Amino acid sequence: MTTASALPPVDFVLNCFQRNLDLVTEPGYLDRAASQHGHPFEMRTLLINNVDDREYARRRAQAAIERGEIDRFVFVDDYLDAALRRTNTKRRDFGRYLHWSDCCLVALCLDGPDFLCYVDVDLDLRGTGDWVEKGLELFAEDSRVGVANPNWRMSDGSTTVEQESDTVGPGWFKGYGFTDQIFLCRRSQLARPLLRRWVPFLLISPASARFPGHQFPVGASTLFSNRSWMRTCGADAFSE
Length: 240
Fold this sequence. Notes:
Elements: E1 10-16, H1 21-24, H2 29-35, E2 43-48, H3 54-66, E3 72-75, H4 76-87, H5 98-109, E4 115-120, H6 131-141, E5 145-149, H7 161-164, E6 167-169, E7 172-175, E8 182-186, H8 187-190, H9 201-204, H10 222-233, E9 236-239
Parallel strand pairs: 1-2, 1-4, 2-3, 5-9
Antiparallel strand pairs: 4-8, 5-8, 6-7, 7-9
Helix pairs in contact: 4-5
């Protein structure tokens, strides 16, 4: 088992929008958002996406830096073009779903630690424990691992993780799908062109049939591209 001192550094990245900017930048919120994962993150990054008043957002985020709650903040718009070039994608590939994926795309392509823990601002974890450390251990043990994330449950308490998994192990499920609300991955593995051409994903990846709500004629979100890449290249996702 990997010891805590030998664990690689991880960048904790939280994404926010106009509708929740004030909430996220309230004193103490970002500390609580990071601490619920139980992991000593090397870096904390706040992504600011699609806001009306950039200067107001900048002041709020800078105050969070001065309080020591984050290490940096970035505006998605400032980095999106570079991220598109790096992954060989275009804005039109995303259609009207651009703001569903541009934040994840920029998070993947930022500098910083290779391991990235991306978290949607509306997500809260139940239970305690360091799921990130467990995920890092799985990455170290199995080179096929592409993504790790916690188990998820619906509002009625049900979960589809086991049904969607291909293998069950002690404390984890392994399969080809993952939630884009919270995930641990390597930037070096995903911040690059993943597909050589754009064709219907149902043809590239039969696993895409598991996600019928995400079927688009040509192209789709970056994270959905990653799901297809995982099937094509034999990478796995672990849910704990």
